[in-house]
Inverse folding.
């Protein structure tokens, strides 16, 4: 692996373009969870020690090539500055000819952060002219954003064609941990998958059925499964156009002998801010929404985990931001944590929301490995080639 740690590069005075993932959760302009910022600090400190000029590229949200208020990286540059106790120069403009002039002015051992890279039109389309343009801002490129490496974007994949490119410390650690899972996985293996990004994960579930013994589906995707298997889910978050996919999942689960678990009972409310009421699946009213899993469902999840050797978790069980609907997520965490500590299972958690839940309940050290990546984490497990990783490997 062509990592900056394996190559004794002389970086003094060199401009290092560092792609990281700072797509952190924010509320009213304030950062609510900082794991992704903290994870990049070792790579930044190594580059500072080598007296490089660090140019940070990252994004928030999906602005699709337009400047969107509320998606600026400025608050994140301030938070990073605070964590490092070092000034972070911030460029409020889109990338132009003047950007390089600004970068050249900063002293060695400094950090310069570009504005949201996705504000630029060519980023998400992986435009070759834009890839070339950003490559001229640095002498070498370092990808430390595993969680973005499933995207064929200019700052992830396109740029590597025009500049010497390397793996950062965090991405190296992520890949090594996931390699261990995929090559030395101990069965029975179970996946708990939740959260609200439904369509993006349902295809992945279909492919993982062939490799896993159990798949537990909760959260928004659990609602979709319930709806398409005949349950009334009221006004719960759900995806309506997934009938054929759900049918395929259920058929494949029988074919490959993978047990699918969906909620037996749930916690409902008429609003996100309300109080919860536990109900069986057949008791949900039209004005209610599912916001957590119930006690019977938690018991069935415990039984699956108790009989597993490897457990992977991606996505919370409910709307855990409201204490009324955090019990399911908290209980899953406690069950996995207890089993991991007694050395009974190899446990891996992945995804931004998952990490936020783990941090909320102070369980960061309760897993064998915690990844901040969501989509990339699942696609890697699925055996897909990630464009960002592939580009770096080809660059060697």
């Amino acid at each position: 692996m062509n990592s900056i740690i394996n190559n004794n590069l002389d970086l003094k005075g060199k401009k290092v373009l560092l792609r990281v993932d700072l797509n952190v959760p924010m509320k009213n302009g304030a950062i609510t969870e900082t794991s992704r910022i903290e994870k990049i600090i070792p790579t930044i400190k190594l580059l500072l020690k080598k007296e490089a000029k660090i140019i940070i590229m990252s994004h928030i949200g999906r602005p699709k090539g337009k400047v969107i208020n509320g998606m600026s990286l400025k608050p994140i540059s301030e938070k990073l500055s605070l964590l490092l106790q070092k000034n972070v120069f911030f460029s409020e403009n889109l990338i132009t000819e003047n950007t390089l002039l600004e970068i050249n002015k900063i002293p060695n051992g400094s950090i310069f952060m570009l504005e949201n890279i996705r504000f630029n039109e060519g980023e998400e389309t992986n435009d070759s002219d834009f890839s070339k343009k950003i490559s001229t801002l640095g002498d070498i490129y370092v990808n430390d954003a595993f969680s973005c490496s499933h995207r064929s974007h200019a700052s992830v994949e396109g740029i590597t064609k025009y500049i010497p490119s390397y793996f950062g410390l965090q991405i190296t650690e992520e890949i090594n941990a996931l390699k261990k899972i995929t090559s030395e996985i101990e069965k029975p293996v179970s996946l708990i998958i939740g959260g609200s990004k439904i369509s993006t994960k349902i295809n992945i579930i279909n492919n993982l059925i062939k490799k896993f013994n159990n798949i537990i589906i909760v959260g928004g995707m659990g609602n979709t499964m319930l709806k398409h298997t005949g349950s009334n889910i009221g006004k719960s978050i759900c995806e309506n156009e997934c009938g054929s996919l759900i049918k395929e999942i259920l058929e494949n689960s029988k074919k490959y002998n993978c047990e699918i678990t969906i909620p037996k009972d749930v916690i409902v409310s008429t609003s996100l801010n309300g109080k919860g009421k536990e109900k069986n699946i057949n008791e949900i009213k039209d004005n209610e929404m599912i916001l957590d899993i119930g006690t019977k469902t938690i018991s069935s999840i415990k039984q699956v985990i108790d009989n597993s050797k490897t457990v992977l978790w991606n996505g919370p069980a409910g709307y855990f931001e409201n204490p009324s609907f955090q019990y399911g997520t908290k209980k899953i965490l406690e069950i996995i944590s207890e089993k991991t500590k007694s050395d009974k299972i190899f446990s891996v958690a992945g995804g931004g929301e998952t990490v936020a839940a783990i941090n909320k309940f102070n369980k960061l050290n309760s897993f064998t490995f915690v990844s901040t990546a969501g989509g990339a984490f699942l696609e890697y497990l699925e055996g897909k080639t990630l464009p960002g990783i592939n580009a770096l490997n080809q660059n060697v």
Q: What stands out?
A: The chain has a mean pLDDT of 92. Residues 185-362 form a domain with the Rossmann fold fold (CATH 3.40.50.1260).
